[in-house]
Amino acid sequence: MKKYYFLFLFLSTINITSILGEQNLLQRVKNNPNEAIKLCRRFRDFNSKNISANDDLAIKEVMKKKGFDQLNAEIYSVYVIGIHCPDVF
Q: Phi and psi dihedrals of 86, rounded to 5?
C-alpha cells in the first residue's frame, strides 16, 4: 500500500509541474510582445506558403529557436497566435 501512495504522490507532482509550466509560457508571451510579434511574422510566412502554424515544420522551428520540447513549443505557439496574431491559421 505504501508503494502506491508514493506512486500517487509522484504522479500528482508531474501534473502540478505541467500546469505551472503552461502558466510560465503564457507569462513569457505576455512579457515579450516583440518576440511574439516576430514569431507572428514567421507564422504568416508559413501561411503564405499554405503551411499552418500548427504544422510540424513550424513547431520544429519554435522548438529550435526557443529550446522547447514539442509540447511546450505547441503551447507557446497557441498563446502567441491567440494573443498577438489571431489571423494566423
A: -65, -10
Q: Which of 70, 87, 69, 82 is nearest to 36 (CA)?
A: 82
| Assessment of whether the complete model's pTM goes beyond 0.70 | yes
Q: What is the mean pLDDT of each run of 10 residues along the chain (89 residues)?
A: 50 50 90 97 98 98 96 96 97
Q: How would you class 10 by CB atoms within 10 Å of its CB: exposed for 0-12, middle for 13-18, buried for 19 or more?
A: exposed
Cell 509540447 sits on residue: 71
* Separation in Å, CA 57 to CA 6, 9, 37, 68, 76: 40, 37, 19, 14, 15
